Amino acid sequence: MVGYSDDDIKNAAEIREWLTKLIFEKQNEIERIKITLSLIDSVLKQGSFKTAANLNLNKKPFTDEKSTSIYDESKKETNNPSFKKGNGESSQLLETRQIKRMKDNTLIAQVEVSKEKIEIIPSESFSFNMDTPPFKSFFINRILEGMKNKDIDKVKQGQLSELDVISFNTIQKENNDNILKKIEIKNYRDKDRINEIFNTVAWVFTRMLEKSEK
Predict the structure, then answer these.
(1) Segment 25-73, tens digit of pLDDT
(2) H or E, element range at 167
(3) How far is CA 56 from CA 41, 60, 110, 203, in A?
(4) Whole-prediction pTM value?
(5) Is 1 part of any domain?
(6) 80 within domain boundaries
C-alpha cells in the first residue's frame, strides 16, 4: 500500500475544504435561481402570459391532477374530530413552511397555511420595516393586489362570489407602527397561489434584509 506524505494529506485537506465551500456556494446559487425563476413566473402571470411549465413542451396531454385546490381538499377535514370549529377558533394547519436566509440558513419567517388563511410571521430576530422596498411596491401592490384584481374580474364575469375574493392585511407590531408583525391572506383558494405567495415573499424578505444591512 502506497503511503502519503504530510504534504499530500495537507493538499487533500485544502482541496476538500475548497470543494465543500464550492458545494455550499452552488447550492445557494441554485436556490437563488429557483427564487428568481418563481419571481419571473409571478410577473408573467400578472401579465396573463403562460409560464414555461404550461407550454406543453413535452407534447403530453395536460392533466390538472396536481393542481387540486387546497381549499376544496381541506373541506374534507371538517369531518375530522381534530379539526376545530366554532367562533374564535382556528382550523387545523394544513402546511407550515420556513423562509431561511440563504447565506447562513437563518430562519427569517414562517408561513402557516390553514383552510381559512395564510399567515406570514417574521422571526423575532429581524425587523421588517414595511417602507423598505420592495415590500409595498412589489409584494403588496403587484402580487397581492394583482391577485385581488383578477378575482374582482371573475366576480364581474359571474365566475366568483364577492365573498371569495382574496383579501389581505398587514399587522404592525405594537408601539412600532412601521415594523411588520404578521401578514394575513384570506381566500387564497389553491396551491398555485400558496406557492406564488411563498416564493415571492421569500425573495422580498431577502431583498429587504439586504437593504437594511447596507
Answers:
(1) 677 677 777 777 777 776 676 554 444 444 444 433 333 333 345 444 5
(2) strand 167-173
(3) 16, 7, 34, 27
(4) 0.63
(5) no
(6) yes
